[in-house]
Structures are given as structure tokens and as C-alpha cells.
Design brief:
TIM Barrel; alpha/beta
Length: 281
């Protein structure tokens, strides 16, 4: 109890120090932020020392972004994974401290839970002002006052529209079939990088992401509410004379770039042969 209270107090102090931004509304989002043949990938219940690195490797190989909905208790265990998620430019999402059913808590307990989770994420990332643009309620239990509290903490409440049920132990071919049958333009896909054996999830996306890109799909982030909302640029800012190896991600002028090979002087926005533009943060 003392540890939780200490964490909550620290979170309140950090939150007071953050710059004021537009407050999202309590609306729950079910679509990508851009229209067209676009998908948004989201991964819940991590970070996991076994599966999160594999998901991150795949996303780097395929030059894809995703949202990671992090559980506070796992964040505390594996801070280096949070640093890696952030360094790769993936937005993070508050998924509560211990994957609690928030409907069983009082409003005060809900707020304390989300504040403590934010503090844990920012502490693990080593960035007290890290953007945490999204909140996802465990089990999809949204509604008032949960979404109102999330909005007051600058989170957009993030739902999903495609669920391959990768938590039920099904093998990769079954997940491939489910995802293939369910996807549509602007869908938000729910999957997991924690909470169990996620090898089928990794294998399914290893097959599907290239297939979807060949079919004309691109990947973007889920929508946010109450804008203008600050960009979720989490990767380091590009620095001239910095040394960047293939796969390194940087931000410049509100966009995320990934190096195709070793580079030092080439500016991301003006060297498309060296840097792949992964789009706005």
C-alpha cells in the first residue's frame, strides 16, 4: 500500500509539471485518424521480455508503427522494454496498473490507478513529459466515469474493431484466417504482446503485414479526441553528425523516419533514399 501511495504521489507531482494541452473528450474512438485503406495495430498487456522484443523486431523489419497498451506492473518489471518501445517511435497507452476491471473501483480509485500507471510508464521511459495519448480499459469496459477520468488525464479512450482473439491459444493459421476475414479500411486491430504465449500472434503478423502492404494497406495511428493534440513523437530527435545504423528511428519536424542503412549527415526530410518516412507522429 505504501509503495502504491508513493507512486501515486510521484505521479501527481509529474502531472502538475507537464505543459497544459488540449483535453480529449470522453468519447471512445473506433477508427484510425486518417481515412482510406488504413489499419491501426495495437498490442496489449505488455511489456513482455519474451514477446515484446519479437513484436518490435517485426515492426522495425516491416517499417510499421503500432500502439502499445502497457500494464503498470509489467512496466515496473521491464523498464528497458518501455525505453525500446519509445525509442522506436511507438505511442504508448495506459492499460491500468494491474489489468483491473475498473467498473469494480470507485472514481477515486480509478483516477489513482491511471495516475500511478502514467507515473510508472514515464519513469521507465526516463521521460517525465512522455506523451501517453491513449487509454484502454481492460476487457473493453468503458463508460462514465471511467472515460471522463481518462480524458481529464489527457488520454483518448481507445477501443478496437477487429479482435482475432489471440488470447485463446489458437495457432497462427487460425489467427491469420480470423484477421483476414475481419479487417476493413480504418479498422483498429487488437492483439497482445503480453499475458501468455504470443508466438502465434507474432507468426500471424509476420505473414499478414507484408501481405496487407502488398494489397495496398498502410498503417496509421488510432484517432484522438479533443484536438489539437500534441504529436506522439517519442523517438529521439535527429541530430546532425549523429551516427545512425540501419533500423534506427528518429523524429524530425513532427514526422517519424527509419534509417535504411548506416548514415551520419543526411537529413531525414531531404534524403528519402536513406530514410523511410513513416508518417506524422
Amino acid at each position: 500500500m505504501l509503495k502504491r501511495l508513493t507512486l501515486t504521489t510521484a505521479a501527481l507531482l509529474v502531472a502538475m509539471a507537464l505543459p497544459a494541452t488540449a483535453t480529449p473528450t470522453a468519447e471512445v474512438v473506433y477508427t484510425t485518424r486518417t481515412a482510406g485503406q488504413v489499419l491501426a495495430l495495437t498490442f496489449d498487456d505488455g511489456p513482455s521480455p519474451e514477446w515484446t522484443p519479437q513484436v518490435l523486431d517485426l515492426l522495425r523489419e516491416t517499417k510499421t508503427r503500432a500502439v502499445f497498451c502497457l500494464v503498470g506492473s509489467e512496466v515496473v518489471k521491464y523498464p528497458d522494454l518501455v525505453k525500446r518501445i519509445v525509442a522506436d517511435g511507438h505511442p504508448v497507452c495506459n492499460h491500468t496498473y494491474g489489468h483491473e476491471n475498473l467498473a469494480t473501483l470507485t472514481p477515486e480509485q480509478v483516477r489513482a490507478n491511471l495516475v500511478a500507471t502514467n507515473a510508472a510508464i514515464r519513469q521507465a521511459a526516463g521521460n517525465p513529459s512522455l506523451p501517453i495519448p491513449y487509454f484502454r480499459a481492460p476487457f473493453g469496459i468503458f463508460g462514465s466515469p471511467i472515460t471522463d477520468i481518462a480524458a481529464s488525464l489527457s488520454h483518448t479512450s481507445l477501443a478496437w474493431t477487429v479482435d482475432p482473439q489471440d488470447w485463446d491459444g489458437s495457432p497462427a493459421p487460425v489467427l491469420v484466417q480470423r484477421l483476414t476475414a475481419q479487417i476493413y479500411p480504418t479498422a483498429i486491430l487488437l492483439s497482445h504482446d503480453g499475458g501468455g504465449d504470443r508466438s502465434p500472434t507474432v507468426a500471424a503478423y509476420r505473414e499478414l503485414i507484408p501481405r496487407w502492404k502488398t494489397a495496398g494497406y498502410t498503417f496509421d495511428l488510432p484517432a484522438t479526441t479533443g484536438g489539437p493534440y500534441p504529436p506522439a513523437c517519442t523517438a529521439p530527435t535527429w541530430q546532425r553528425n549523429g551516427t545512425y545504423v540501419a533500423g534506427t528511428r528518429v523524429t524530425q519536424d513532427g514526422k517519424l523516419y527509419q534509417a535504411n542503412w548506416w548514415t551520419r549527415l543526411e537529413r531525414p526530410s531531404s534524403a528519402p533514399w536513406t530514410w523511410t518516412n513513416l508518417g506524422p507522429c
